[in-house]
Design a protein that fits this description.
alpha/beta, FAD/NAD(P)-binding domain, Enolase-like, domain 1, binds flavin-adenine dinucleotide
């Protein structure tokens, strides 16, 4: 058996593993960093939906670059880590033993399918959306010649895939299991706007129903339809189960690493497991919500990268005070040319968590004056604590600038800023680039929230 020695072993080459390795090398340049990942070609997971339609059109255009890591002197091995001896600090692959000083689990997540639908994965035409090029190519090749596409799940991955298939004039139906799409990230009023836009792109939505059976009418092992709880039958040549992801933690569990809620690896704020030489980052780690501190199922590449930065700089002692204090579930999606972004809690989630909130809501334009070519509506909704005025959630709908606008709101939430501070913040405005200084939607939404806080109930 081949023997390899390194200082820091990173298992996984997704966003969390990649960022951990680069951060570790930047902070500890004399350490030998080794990344082991299963596949030679790693897809950029966030752009997988765009493989199926006109935007990218093939997986070859969605390959992650690993150039930076090799330029920095980070080594890579392709293969699977099958076993770990945490006491001896040894990891085992098929024909190789790796000794390490520090270990980072970045083994990610895999598609979750409800047990009642598991068996249907054996049918031709039924797919999940894994982050694996070979399997994504299989889905793409199979669906290219098919007409009726049913997407199960109305989270952002299901919706992005559905809209992409619609760009190829397929008959696409999303079965959501919730009244409106994107319900985990947006309040119903904004989810409805996204849904109406999706319908305009030709995607059908069945909200108040769910799939109870996937049907192979001819007994030929090929899917034909799905049956809904209501008894309705929807024709399907392809069924895509976009029903969530679960932490990939079987290796960690086998190695005796403690797991927490939803089977994620238990970590502290510095992404350390209970053994401080072993870290876990990304989708395989157990997460908490930034505001409520409740267990969270949110899985995002951006959060995974942030965790990688924390772990990579904390390997040999706490270097920077900033720990990771929970996910703010910050993300953006696009339906056609309209962007929908969200961070923190929605109004509905805050109320469910028994937090007394007011909402600041303002719709303006993303350019000024309105006659500037391509000016679009920009809507900002802020969820604000009635006592104290801290902003704990934000939703933005607008043009491309929305992606960065939500990042600003994310920093506001993470920094515990309140609406009084945002109301008087200094901003740069320019007709071709931004809203007007007099009616900047983020500031105006704060002003609206202050008005509600100060009005007697
Ligand atoms: C279709 C889709 C669209 C998405 N869009 C967005 C988006 O727009 N924005 C966003 O923020 N997030 C998005 N996400 C979520 C995001 O992709 C994940 O949160 C992110 O990939 C998690 O990163 P990770 O590094 O923790 O895990 P993963 O990306 O799952 O990577 C895990 C890595 O570990 C490797 N591995 C696992 N076990 C072993 C082993 N035993 N030995 C060796 N290697 C192993 C895998 O091969 C892989 O390289 C999307 C996800 C999907 C599927």
């Amino acid at each position: 058996m081949k023997k390899i020695k390194c200082d820091v072993l990173v298992i996984g080459g997704g966003p969390a593993g990649g960022v951990s390795a680069v951060t570790a090398k930047t902070n500890y340049p004399n350490k030998e960093i080794l990344v082991v990942r299963e596949f030679e070609i790693q897809l950029v997971p966030c752009a997988i939906p765009y493989i199926f339609g006109e935007t990218l059109g093939c997986s070859e255009k969605d390959v992650a670059s690993c150039g930076m890591a090799s330029d920095m002197g980070i080594s890579t091995l392709i293969g699977e880590v099958e076993d770990i001896d945490t006491k001896e600090k040894l990891a085992y692959m098929k024909d190789c033993q790796i000794s390490f000083d520090k270990l980072i689990f970045a083994t990610g997540s895999e598609p979750f399918v409800h047990s009642s639908l598991q068996h249907s994965l054996e049918l031709d035409g039924v797919f999940t959306v894994p982050k694996n090029k070979t399997l994504i190519d299989k889905l793409k090749d199979y669906s290219d010649s098919k007409e009726n596409i049913v997407v199960v799940g109305s989270g952002f991955i299901g919706i992005e895939i559905a809209v992409e298939f619609a760009t190829k004039n397929k008959n696409v139906t999303v079965i959501g299991g919730s009244k409106h799409i994107l319900k985990n990230a947006f309040d119903s009023d904004i989810g409805l706007q996204a849904e109406e836009l999706m319908l305009k792109y030709g995607v059908k939505y069945i909200g108040d129903d769910r799939v109870v059976e996937i049907i192979d009418q001819n007994n030929d092992n090929i899917v034909n339809a799905v049956k809904l709880k209501s008894g309705n039958i929807i024709d399907a040549d392809v069924v895509i189960l976009a029903t969530g992801y679960k932490p990939n933690t079987s290796l960690a569990q086998k190695a005796g690493i403690a797991l927490a809620h939803y089977r994620g690896i238990w970590v502290d704020e510095y992404m350390r497991t209970q053994n401080h030489d072993i870290f876990a980052v990304g989708d395989c780690s157990a997460r908490r919500d930034f505001i409520t501190k409740e267990s969270s199922k949110v899985m995002l590449a951006s959060t995974s990268s942030a965790e990688g930065r924390v772990a990579g700089s904390s390997l040999y002692g706490i270097k920077y005070l900033k720990g990771f204090s929970g996910t703010i579930a910050i993300f953006s999606t696009m339906i056609g040319k309209r962007a929908f972004s969200s961070a923190g809690l929605t109004q509905e989630q805050a109320q469910k968590a028994n937090i007394d909130v007011v909402v600041g809501y303002f719709q303006g334009l993303n350019r000024h004056p309105a006659t500037i070519p391509n000016a679009q509506k920009q809507l900002v909704k802020l969820v604000v604590m009635r006592h104290g005025g801290q902003i704990i959630g934000g939703q933005v709908v607008g043009g491309e600038e929305t992606g960065e606008m939500i990042n600003l709101i994310g920093l506001i939430i993470e920094s515990h800023f309140d609406v009084y501070r945002v109301m008087s913040m200094q901003i740069a405005t320019q007709p071709m680039l931004t809203s007007a200084p007099t009616s900047y939607p983020l500031i105006m939404a704060s002003v609206m929230a202050i008005d509600k806080i100060e009005k007697p109930q």
